[in-house]
Amino acid sequence: MASLGLSVYALVIGGGASSTTTGSPRAGAPPLCRAAQLSATAELNGAAFGTMEGGAIVTNTAGSPCSLPSGRPRVDILWHGRVLPTRETTEPASGEPPPVRMLGPSSKAVIPLNWANWCGKPRQGTVSGFRPTFEVRFAGGLRIDAPGSVATPPLCISPQRPTSVLAVGRLGKAVGF
Question: Which H or E run contains 13?
């Protein structure tokens, strides 16, 4: 976990990569998942260097399997209906769970998230029960809102470079969620 925090810190002070998504189901795979058959929540907890780390957990609520879009989704953080300004980067591949391409009924997958350097409002420690929504968008138009459970926003660790960073991983097997 500390190495992930260091990676995010390094991204805050310089560098980073953009994220892209692509994909459609492979031949013989179940149809693509629809938003109506998925539910999501986001859970982030305190991690190294004042970051918030966790993931958006996606659950297939339908009675049949579906295929997930390939690639990395885009994620926005919303609070009171407004998008919080963040610079999205990719989660280091070493910190990602094994990839998932299909969700069976009641199965779960996770999108790893690490949020760092929040210098906006609300500030860490000024709100309790901070409950943002993480808007997850995949290639092809699939969009899922994941109500968040975040105790507090991350620390402002670099006020001279106040850009908040959200590292987003690929959809993978939900272990421990």
Answer: helix 2-13
Nearest to 150 by CA among 136, 165, 130, 176: 130
pLDDT tens track for 149-174 = 766 788 888 888 878 999 999 888 88
Q: When comparing pLDDT for 163 and 92, which is higher?
A: 163
What is d(CA 175, CA 169) in angstroms, rounded to the nearest whole number? 14
The structural domain count of the chain equals: 1
CB 31 within 8 A of CB 139: no
Domain with 142, as residue range(s), is 2-173
Instruction: Give which of 166, 165, 47, 39 is closest to 109, Cα–Cα.
Output: 39
From the list 80, 44, 74, the residue with the least C-alpha distance to 153 is 44
